Batch of 2 targets.
Target 1
Amino acid sequence: MNEFDLIHRLTRNLPANQALVSGAGDDCAVLDLGLGDRYVLFKTDAVVEGIHFKTDTPPQKIGHKALARCLSDVAAMAGTPTAALITLGLPPNFDPTTVESIYEGISALARRYETAIAGGETTTNPERIFISVALLGTVAKNKCVHRSGARPGDAIFVSGELGGSLSGKHLEFEPRLREAQWLADAFPPTSMIDLSDGLAGDLRHILTASGVGAELLSDSIPISRAAKLHARVESSAKPPLLAALTDGEDFELLFTIPSSNAVAVLDKWKKQFPGLRLTCIGRITAARGLKLRDKGGLREIGLRGYEHFTKPEQS
Amino acid sequence: MNEFDLIHRLTRNLPANQALVSGAGDDCAVLDLGLGDRYVLFKTDAVVEGIHFKTDTPPQKIGHKALARCLSDVAAMAGTPTAALITLGLPPNFDPTTVESIYEGISALARRYETAIAGGETTTNPERIFISVALLGTVAKNKCVHRSGARPGDAIFVSGELGGSLSGKHLEFEPRLREAQWLADAFPPTSMIDLSDGLAGDLRHILTASGVGAELLSDSIPISRAAKLHARVESSAKPPLLAALTDGEDFELLFTIPSSNAVAVLDKWKKQFPGLRLTCIGRITAARGLKLRDKGGLREIGLRGYEHFTKPEQS
């Protein structure tokens, strides 16, 4: 049973109440606590030694990544972070200096986004460091962007460049909070998600939640230098396009907007965020499924993106 | 370096912002999100296999304990829980039925206190189950009880009976949410905490936060049947009084109220909660330190409660 099957099984019949606007199935849980025209966003995310970082990863970067993942989820709903709590599971022989450095990485990022670190706790996890971050934020009710609003005809956009994140970016990425808030004001997305599982996987979350399909343009997908370099120097590496579709941990914004706004958003984004690429990579279709258009025609990207893509069915 | 030293070192200079009313150093972090006359309470707490429960602990009880610990912290500030997120670290060979049963234990308790389970995530923790719960609640600003308000002359009360929790109660305890809310309305405590580290340790948290001392009456401390039984059948066990002072995981309420209300609260509590004992165990003093009065006179309970108590300095 994989993570998604398990989560589906666990979240079928969870207790709800009047405050819960939406729970599992979006980047953050959304709560209405009676805060006037704002919702509260609520998110937890964990990083584990040997899984999400290595034993020799610089501890500031571990802390940065732990908080940045949660901030990226708040960004995906166009929210503003407020406060975080840090849960640290530590082996009994932990080095206090390492733990302080993890906190420095967390704190430096928190200060940049005016997020309070409201405390937390330490406990024992004998074999490895386990860090769980809980984050609270808020968002104006009429600016909150869900995964479920994509409509046929919408243009699909992605920020930055994709693939090869494990060569470094996954420890240093900047959560796209400012970009997402600007979008929600200037060109409200119909749907948005942050890229953690890879473009193909995360776009599928939007398609499922919205009940639509998509067609991506192979040539337009922005491939990172890291993914290209990796494919060049290592013969067993994924082809760069496949890396961009499936590597994961990009932590860029993937969103849809009505196609009538497509040219304007590209133009204004370039002026607003000259250092960060924005690319239109395809469009939402009424027909279900995720397809990729290239010189050979239109190919289905199957449910298990990787396998099906390397052995595509011709359409 | 122990947990308290580390937390002190980590929490000296954390990022704050205007929303943060109080962070580390109370049972929950307190946030003012602009919710009229209410604060938001924010808490995380983790339980780890082999530390807080055994591999053969019934999974429903694991789930119950994981959520109940957080609810107990919201109770300690006289708050009302709203929503929780569950982070599950699981070994790769986890049994889905076990995980579902953990969620059943969480959900049954959540329903009892109208708390939404707003989602969460699963990740890999190869060697053992690690469960971190993040909880949001609210509390009326004028009813929120901190650790820092105890004043000389206040009477000290504790709910329930103490010691021996590990023989079963730590997996089944009921968070004292209703009792705490009733207190906050009827006899507002000047300070309150939930008993997780043991009476001596947790009372010391109140004394430190309030800048006061305390004198406990040895004969009045309510000792659980489990602690007495344990001392009788196992020669190496702590004496029952020491167990009640230091065992931990009682998850009862420890609070102070002005002594003028002491008789009235005992009287009204008995009518309100006939199944749950309430005991006055001593009083707050201007002189710092934690002292225990018994037939032999007044003895200091040292910083390392256990050792000093077994070799008391006569006063």
Target 2
Amino acid sequence: MEQAFLAYLRGRCRHLPQVAVGIGDDAAVINPSDGQLVACTDQIIDGTDFDSRRFELDGHRWADVGFKSIAINLSDMAAMGGKPQAVLVTIALPNENPSRIAGDVYEGILEAAAEYDLAIAGGDISVYDGPLSISVTLLGSVPSGKAWLRSGAQEGDAIFVSGAVGGSLRGRHLRPQPRIQLAKRIRELEICVHAAIDISDGLSLDLDRLCASSGLGAELEAEAIPIHADAIERAQETGCTPWEHAWRDGEDFELILTMNQEDAKQISKIDLGVPLTCIGEIVGRTGMWKRNLGKLERLMPQGYVHGKSTSQATPESS
Amino acid sequence: MEQAFLAYLRGRCRHLPQVAVGIGDDAAVINPSDGQLVACTDQIIDGTDFDSRRFELDGHRWADVGFKSIAINLSDMAAMGGKPQAVLVTIALPNENPSRIAGDVYEGILEAAAEYDLAIAGGDISVYDGPLSISVTLLGSVPSGKAWLRSGAQEGDAIFVSGAVGGSLRGRHLRPQPRIQLAKRIRELEICVHAAIDISDGLSLDLDRLCASSGLGAELEAEAIPIHADAIERAQETGCTPWEHAWRDGEDFELILTMNQEDAKQISKIDLGVPLTCIGEIVGRTGMWKRNLGKLERLMPQGYVHGKSTSQATPESS
């Protein structure tokens, strides 16, 4: 089925200038970017990252899964301040109904590609005795030496979070809006982002990773954290507070950014199309701290850790 | 387990100049190549592409699978005339013994990376309810506009095949020797390769694909095809002739190359470290033909077609 499906796919793909040779040869040839190449990869597996048996219950479709497989990589690209160019998509299809599932999944992939001007430059398809698995590699570019790293935070930096966080499991998590446009706008403004990470495992865990990578800590105005309406709804179901959901729920796919106070002041005056909220400051003392009436209370990272079954996580250094 | 394993992996990876930011951030940053970027991806799945239940019987190990997951991509890179630079490796691990299998698989991956000066620039690891699956994306470069495409063959071109073909299932297929060095040597000689493909599904099928992509055909000196010793051994088991095995067995990972007769003459005089055998000529008449005492006999493509269970294949156009 691979050959027939690739033929179908070639017909569905637009030709984009960043790809010189697309699907159908031994490899794709991508035109050199004007800076450094950025590459990220992420996989999504039925039964681990989502559950197709709940599709009817949750109102989700295979197309959502396809869309998400691209979107989670775009979110990583945004967190590098990168401009996405092309994807390679590898799919392992279950034995049952592989053609129908492949077609449905690709509806979502093609939708994401069209929305973000992404070329589908290649891929691989297999049918096997296992659940649907999609592995996407996204290629993009950044101006040379200007990638936004996790490790670049500096003492005194303002910490921003985009959008609002928490409760994404109520449905948002399958149709994430990666912050590609926001990253592009910030680059155009020549704001110097010192450090960035996307929130995939939870605000607290991912902020902790950024701090650990930078060898620094964070003091937070806890009440400034922008809480999503979904976190409030979710709190009514779980008995946790909306703030707790905002702090630890995963799959927000928002950005955490740090920059110096001058840039922070400048950016706060500009309409970026997405809210950007200052939630605290990078400090020399490691760990995460909540400012409370002049005192500091330790905040522990909580969220989703791959391969662990508890929601309480130990601090991570990656 | 992802975080701990990534930490282990960072420790095992050499720093190579082509990678500015490696494992541990949202994406890898790769230094711009001096030409165009070449990207290919291929996956390898237990039960589909190999069978771990036969390891003991066949004398294979998880490390071989890891090595092969890189080598099959290197073979595609060689078939583009590309220089490999970095890989992103995504692994889905079975629930049983995931850590041990990941460690063993990575032994082979690290061995291939060391042998071909490849940086491991990133990846993703999941544990799931399914068989081991490895998806590799390989990034490399070619001088701008000089990628070796399947579609570039010209009437009158000499057709070469590297090494010897057939019978790889006797064991060679798990430790392929991708023709990266050969491709590099040919580039250095400034031989102008018109078209190229690697033999993954069989000489006949892959040559047919090259011909179809170029809109041309091939006239072959059938007896010139270099038959591997494994094909002769295999023939004793199957009752087919060694030539039939050379013609249709897959996973040789040799290269088919076409070039004009002048370059063909030049290259035939040079020791390339690997035999390069002229097996025929590109012709205007489509299809593949065997020259026999001044007459032409039609040759049908045969080999492994993904998703088909017969060994007789219909001509393909990709």
